[in-house]
Specification:
single chain, 194 residues, alpha+beta, outer membrane lipoprotein receptor (LolB), chain A, eleven-stranded antiparallel β-sheet, 11 strands
Length: 194
């Protein structure tokens, strides 16, 4: 065998053994396990809502926090203060100076399915997610995309698809496509513990 042919053969063998390791797709169980290991997280967010009756996207920003297994807070700071606190089965909406309302999620199954998409993902709770969504994962640990498609007819009339992108155990963006054509895009930036 000529020297060049031996080099080509060696290079081909090296590539054949290295590529599968580099191209290994992240599996859903692996992602859920990574997410479940994070017992708490804090982040800032910028959200743009594209609403059919408004020419420009409506933008808001604020802070998110999660404490496993079931506490999730979204505090909007701009353009006006508002907070949503999900603690177990209770969702509290607080608009300073206007109202404070608490509802039980069991009384609003569509709302429960919607908020469970975020909380279930953050907690790495695959079974909770699969009760109401079909899950599709693509990518690698460094850059993954999880698509949640509602499996219940009532939920499909509200949200057609939720896309979450992330890296390892951090969610970087959350996009909601609504059945009425409206959509929202949220960019999430993790706040590292000091």
């Amino acid at each position: 065998m000529r020297k060049i042919d031996c080099c080509k053969l060696a290079l081909s063998l090296l590539l054949c053994t290295a590529l599968p390791a580099m191209a290994a797709e992240l599996q859903l169980g692996e992602l859920m396990q990574m997410l479940a290991q994070a017992k708490s997280a804090k982040a800032t967010f910028i959200e743009k809502k594209y609403i059919g009756i408004v020419d420009k996207p409506v933008e808001s920003s604020g802070e998110l926090s999660f404490t496993a297994p079931d506490k999730l807070e979204k505090r909007t700071l701009k353009p006006k203060a508002e907070s949503l606190v999900l603690d177990g089965d209770a969702l509290t909406v607080d608009i300073p100076g206007k109202r404070r309302t608490t509802i039980k999620l069991q009384d609003y199954p569509e709302v429960a399915a919607f908020v469970e998409s975020i909380r279930g993902t953050l907690a790495g709770d695959r079974s909770a997610l699969e009760r109401v969504y079909k899950l599709e994962l693509s990518g690698h640990p460094e850059k993954w995309l999880l698509v949640l498609t509602p499996t219940q007819a009532k939920m499909s009339k509200i949200v057609t698809r939720i896309r979450m992108q992330g890296s390892h155990s951090e969610i970087k963006s959350i996009d909601f496509d609504q059945a009425d054509g409206d959509r929202s895009e949220m960019l999430v930036t993790s706040i590292q513990a000091q």
